[in-house]
Design goal:
The chain is α+β, with helices and mostly antiparallel strands and about 325 residues long. The protein has helices at about 5-15, 20-25, 30-40, 65-70, 85-95, 140-155, 220-225, 230-245, 250-255, 305-310, and strands at about 50, 55, 75-85, 100-110, 125-130, 165, 170-175, 175-190, 190-200, 265-270, 270-280, 285-290, 295, 300-305. Helix 5 links the parallel strand 3 (about 75-85) and strand 4. The structure holds biotinyl-5-AMP (BT5).
Length: about 325
Amino acid sequence: MQETRAEILARLADGPVTGPELADSLGVSRAAVWKQIESLREAGFEIPSGDAGYRLASVPEFGGAAIEFGLDAPYSIEYHDTITSTNDRARELAVEGRTDAVVVADEQTGGRGRLDREWRSPSGGIWLSILLRPEIPTVQAPIYTLAGAVATTRAVRELGVDARIKWPNDVQVGGRKLAGILTEMEGEADRISWLVVGIGLNANVDPGQLPAEQPVTSLQSETGAVDRRTVTQRLLAEFRKLAAETDSILPAWRELATTVGKRVRVETPDGEVVGDAVGIDSPGTLVVDTGGETVTVTAGDCEHLQPGDVSRD
Ligand code: BT5
């Protein structure tokens, strides 16, 4: 958000303030203040003016300025009512040299999952992509997928939703998929150039609008419609905290995950692995005891098997 706009909002949050007072304290013209107030009103902020000056009566439910207002993380937000894919847009920003930017959309028309699967993204969701440039070796990149899962899980657990993580990138409630994460990056072997963590969270979405081939859920059906602005702010603040302290990611992930201790079937690029999930290692690999040997899986689709499923394998 532009500095002036952010400062005007911060002043309004403290109570009514007149146009001349704002202009003086920000060192800009009254016309500039008026222009910013108008653009905030256009963005959905309710700012009536009375004898005491301008007053902040309400903040819009969603949108770039709304998310930045009160956000406890130094990200700039680019918001779209509708977009093909926030990951695609974040990649464009990466090519432009940007960092610490977040692209958020109400609806995506070409949302992507892993392996170019479709990610259904109707209006009402929280579809976002975080662009960052961490100074770490490329092999460490998967830790940011885990950070995305932890941040999402923590943010929704604050709403009383019993969300858990399924390796590697699903946030689930009672085995139903609530959110997924798609991390994309560019870099050399020894250094990441940029990283985009795309998070799709079914927020105020009717599960009837989502694919039926696997169990899915949304915050709306778990708790009723949520304040997407606050959820997004909490998610981004948690992500930022984890990204600043990468050693904390794996322990936090282990605490919230359900996969370890389960019998699993993992479809990997090299074939199927079936066994007991016995651990998670840095930077997010799944360790599976197949009975005869211990296998480390770096990527794949994981299915938690029920006790009855085991004999079939
Ligand atoms: C994922 O892939 O779970 C990663 C999803 C990432 C989406 C975000 S939204 C913001 C950003 N911009 C993008 O374009 N993408 C990211 P994967 O594990 O491959 O799961 C994909 C599978 O989940 C699909 O094949 C469907 O079966 C299912 N699916 C599709 N849409 C879903 C939804 N909204 N909720 C739950 N499951 C869904």
